[in-house]
Protein: DUF1349 domain-containing protein
Amino acid sequence: MSRTGVEWSSGVWTHEPVSAVEQGGDLLVTAVEGSDAWRHTSYGFVHDSEHTLVRELPDAAAVEVAFTVGFEAQFDQAGVFLRVDDENWIKAGVEFADGSPQLGAVVTRGSSDWSVAPVPEWAGRVVTVRASRSGDAVTVRAAVEGEPFRLVRVAPLPPGAVVHAGPFCCAPTRAGLVVRFHEWAVTEPDGSLH
Structure:
């Protein structure tokens, strides 16, 4: 499998955003205020209103999404989303929390978890997030323009599961978040964990 760009028009929204407009090859997505993806843990609520543009991701393949980190409100977020069903999914990317962009992932298997690490130097820059399916796992990596990919997470994912994946964004705390997505691609999965 070679690297293949995915047309924005080939995806289907899990939940429609306020708008999604193509501009010079990019996709500008305006998120609905209060949109989010989370299940139970610590907060006790279920949010299932993220804006994800998905298509099927085969076994032994990787999905990549590139976007500009232009976040300023608590929990503004974008990245890549892999969905099996309502209770089994992974989102990974950059989320604005506690005054800084944070690189992280949420893995949900009935209930959600969350891990983040601050990346304040990524503000205003283009970030690419890659999620690779291989065997019984998904390996998530991310890179900021001109730098090598770094490992974000290794998470379980049953082999043979039907997975739909693509770019996502959410705006849990405000209206007016616009995320500029630059690329959506499918490629070979990463060959190793490190």
